[in-house]
């Protein structure tokens, strides 16, 4: 997962007309991805050693799990590990609206 992230940033980096120093990578991580922020940070640090990304920090923003109940026509927030069905009608969760994303929000960089 970290590899895919680094590849995305590398693609961006290589498409720029001039090299930048990446200071910070802002990530959106869904609560339903089972990604541990601490282990993500660790993997990122290890895998960016001796690359243009060495020293860049990760800023992780959590995105809560939100599901949509077609029966009630409403969004609701399931409790991860406890209760995934709709709190009103108890229909099983079948439509996840957010909480599964792992993507780059934005990059902070400076000129070198
Ligand atoms: Zn419902």
From TrEMBL:
Protein name, per record: Hydrogenase nickel insertion protein HypA
Protein family per UniProt: Belongs to the HypA/HybF family.
Gene Ontology MF terms in the entry: nickel cation binding; zinc ion binding
Keywords: Metal-binding, Nickel, Zinc
PROSITE patterns: HYPA
Pfam families for the chain: HypA (PF01155)
Signal peptide (residue range): none
PANTHER family in UniProt: HYDROGENASE MATURATION FACTOR HYPA
Matches recorded under InterPro entries: Hydgase_Ni_incorp_HypA/HybF_CS, HypA/HybF
Lineage of producing organism: Bacteria, Bacillati, Cyanobacteriota, Cyanophyceae, Oscillatoriophycideae
Keyword Signal: no
Single GO biological process annotation from the record: protein maturation
């Amino acid at each position: 997962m970290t590899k895919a992230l680094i590849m995305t940033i590398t693609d961006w980096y290589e498409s720029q007309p001039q090299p930048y120093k990446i200071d910070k990578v802002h990530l959106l991580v869904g609560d339903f991805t089972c990604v541990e922020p601490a282990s993500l940070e660790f993997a990122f640090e290890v895998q960016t050693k001796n690359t243009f990304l060495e020293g860049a920090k990760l800023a992780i923003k959590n995105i809560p799990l939100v599901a949509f109940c077609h029966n009630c026509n409403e969004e609701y927030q399931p409790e991860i590990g406890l209760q995934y069905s709709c709190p009103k009608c108890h229909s099983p969760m079948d439509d996840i609206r957010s909480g599964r994303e792992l993507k780059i929000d934005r990059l902070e960089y400076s000129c070198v």
